[in-house]
Amino acid sequence: MVARWIWNKIPPLLEQLGVPTHKLFHLLDFYHAVEHLQDFAKLAFSDQHTSQDWVKKSRSRLKRGHIETLISTLQQLANSAKGKKREALTQALDYFARQPQRFDYPTVAKRHLPIGSGSIESLIRQVVHLKLKGNGKFWLPQQAEIILHGRCQWAAGHWPDFANSILTAGLS
């Protein structure tokens, strides 16, 4: 399931932080998208070999940026099904059809940026889980937020400026 709320929350936060919008890409993790293709194929095809071949071709289309062609193919397969199978395929199709702009993998790859979320997930693990969670660690929400903010400043390489701003805050 996609956390739809995040697309509404993150852009204002990034704007507040002063991140230039021309440097942002709203991209869905390629490997999660392929999982959705696999789920769709399991519903659409009864033969495993046919399903695997279809996923391989569809994965290639997705990676090359042919999202409209892929959506059209998904729609044809959903329309050719009957009853509950059709409903399930239409629901699976919705993942791609309602947000085609978030599958622009060629543009991101040309900029040598990752098309998967692994690096972000790793950063979250390092910044959040390893520092805030563990045996004997208990935080009240406001203290956890302060620790997390400081840890993010350190991880981003901004610790000296951050520490300086704290030390000089009351001197002006």
Topology as a string of helices (H) and strands (E): HHHHHHHHH
Distance between the termini: 49 Å
- Provide the number of structural domains: 2
For the CA atoms, what is the radius of gyration?
21 Å
Secondary-structure-derived class: mainly alpha
Count of beta strands: 0
Helical run tally: 9
Q: What is the global morphology?
A: elongated
Helix content: 55-70%
Question: Into which percentage range does the β-strand content fall?
Answer: under 5%
Largest sheet: none
Uncertain segments of ≥5 residues (pLDDT<50)?
Answer: none
Q: Determine the mean pLDDT.
A: 86
List the helices and strands and how they pair.
Layout (H helix, E strand, L loop, with lengths): L5 H11 L13 H15 L3 H16 L3 H14 L2 H15 L7 H6 L7 H15 L8 H15 L3 H9 L5
Helix pairs in contact: 2-3, 2-5, 4-5, 7-8
Describe the structure.
The chain is mostly helical and 172 residues long. The chain contains nine helices and no strands. The chain folds into two domains: 6-110, no CATH class; 118-171, no CATH class. The model has no long low-confidence stretch (mean pLDDT 86). Helix 4 runs antiparallel to helix 5. It has helices at residues 6-16, 30-44, 48-63, 67-80, 83-97, 105-110, 118-132, 141-155, 159-167.
What are the defining features of this structure?
9 helices; elongated; single chain; 172 residues; 0% strand; mainly alpha
